[in-house]
Amino acid sequence: MPSTSSLEVLQIIGGVLPLELRREEIAIRELAKITSSFTTVPIKKKLENWKTESNPETYISPIGKMILQADDMKKETSIEVNNIEQQYECRGMCAIRRAPEYWTTLGSSKTRTSEQAIEGQRLIKQQLEELPPNTTVAFTDGSCMGNPGPCGAGAIIYNNEEEETIQYPVSNRGSILLAELVAIKLVLEKIDNYNYRNVKQLNIYSDSQSAIGIITLNWKSENYHKTIQEIKNRKKKLEQKVLLSTSFGHRGTLI
């Protein structure tokens, strides 16, 4: 092969799409996914707003470019991205579990602004005020000196007028996720095994979206499968006699 062969020639010989075509293909695929999303998804809302722009090409934005590519595809192939139906949501026949919308609007513990923190405090306090009387409430937390590093788990349980604190060393070398998971596990074990036979409803608040997502939304985890399964088994057992709710809380809210 001549040493002066162009990149385009090499791509054709290798069966690789030119980079520009590959980029357009990915953009169209992503646009199709966004179009089929629920209208409550933030990026879907942003896409709908972009469609109202009369000249999207004047804005340097991935969404603007995707819209223009979709228009070109419609002209050349008569394929209309906007005809893609929204995801079907079946109600009544099965339970649908999705992360609450405030997970995306209130940021994370690393990125949350002071305004978001105040709104998070208001939201959690409102949830607590709306709980039925005599609801047992637990707040869990994990800590880690380094990640990985020495880590521990803790929780505080409020049962009527009683208050109990749990602390537990988890590992000499673990992660913050492991500590957060173990903290939730400690509460479930405590409620199931000890002096809480009168509990009718239990609400657990964790400040770890990852831990809650893994337990309640079946998010995938590369590690800690044994601990995760133990939590799910204990949760399933408790749900037979206790109304159990596990929710994402916010740092500095009440404790």
Protein described:
This protein is 43% helix and 18% strand. It is of the alpha/beta class. It has a five-stranded mixed beta sheet with strand order 3-2-1-4-5. Helix 2 (19-35) packs across helix 4 (62-77). Residues 88-96 and 250-255 have low confidence and may be disordered. This is RNase H type-1 domain-containing protein. InterPro entries: RNaseH-like_sf, RNaseH_domain, RNaseH_sf.
Task: Give the SSE map.
Blueprint: H1 7-13, H2 19-35, H3 42-50, H4 62-77, H5 102-105, H6 114-129, E1 136-144, E2 149-159, E3 162-174, H7 176-193, E4 201-206, H8 209-216, H9 225-238, E5 243-248
Parallel strand pairs: 1-4, 4-5
Antiparallel strand pairs: 1-2, 2-3
Helix pairs in contact: 2-4, 7-9
Total count of helical runs of at least 4 residues: 9
Largest sheet: 5 strands, mixed
> N-to-C terminal Cα separation, in Å?
70 Å
Structural class: alpha/beta
Portion in helices: 40-55%
Number of strands: 5
CATH class wording of the largest domain: Alpha Beta
Runs in which pLDDT lies below 50 for 5 or more consecutive residues are 88-96, 250-255
CATH-defined superfamily of the largest domain: Ribonuclease H-like superfamily/Ribonuclease H
InterPro entries: RNaseH-like_sf, RNaseH_domain, RNaseH_sf
Pfam families: RNase_H (PF00075)
Organism: Mytilus galloprovincialis
Protein name: RNase H type-1 domain-containing protein
